[in-house]
């Protein structure tokens, strides 16, 4: 990428239940094909749906985020490890680009302000 910085694409909260893991994975793969030098990692948010999270992991999603109680999150994290995947915390520095007209400027400013994964 132009700035040479890695970027994490965090899905919208609970997107796994509406978009599905296959579509999210395809979106990330298409982005990487269009920008082969990009350093992009996708994180699919599964919200409070443990079954959806496990389904996403079994379908090959390597990074998910969840909003579960600690006991259930630990069980999902264990399943993730067995599938060579991880459960990551939701980023508090995520940049929502919905409705942003000048994405290049907003992304550049966000990344140079130290908001990196």
Description:
By secondary structure, the protein is an alpha/beta fold. The protein has one domain. The protein contains five helices and four strands, in the order βααβαβαβα. It has helices at 15-18, 21-34, 50-58, 70-82, 103-112; strands at 7-10, 40-45, 63-65, 86-87. Helix 3 runs parallel beside helix 4 (70-82). The model has no long low-confidence stretch (mean pLDDT 87).
Spatial strand sequence of the major β-sheet? 1-2-3-4
Average of per-residue pLDDT values: 87
Helix content: 40-55%
CA-CA gap between termini? 15 Å
* Global shape: globular
**Which H/E pattern describes the elements?**
EHHEHEHEH
Enumerate the spans where pLDDT stays under 50 for 5 or more consecutive residues.
none
Number of domains: 1
- Strand percent estimate: 5-15%
The biggest sheet, with number of strands, parallel, antiparallel or mixed sense and barrel status, is: 4 strands, parallel
* Total strand segments: 4
**SS content category:** alpha/beta
Radius of gyration: 15 Å
Number of helices: 5
């Amino acid at each position: 990428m132009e700035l040479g910085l890695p970027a994490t694409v965090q899905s919208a909260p609970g997107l796994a239940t509406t978009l599905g893991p296959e579509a999210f994975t395809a979106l990330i793969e298409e982005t990487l094909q269009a920008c082969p030098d990009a350093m992009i990692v996708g994180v699919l948010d599964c919200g409070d749906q443990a079954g959806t999270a496990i389904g996403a992991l079994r379908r090959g999603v390597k990074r998910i985020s969840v909003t579960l109680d600690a006991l259930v999150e630990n069980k999902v994290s264990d399943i993730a490890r067995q599938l060579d995947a991880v459960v990551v915390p939701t980023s508090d520095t995520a940049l929502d680009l919905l409705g942003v007209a000048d994405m290049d400027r907003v992304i550049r400013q966000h990344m140079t302000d130290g908001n990196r994964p």
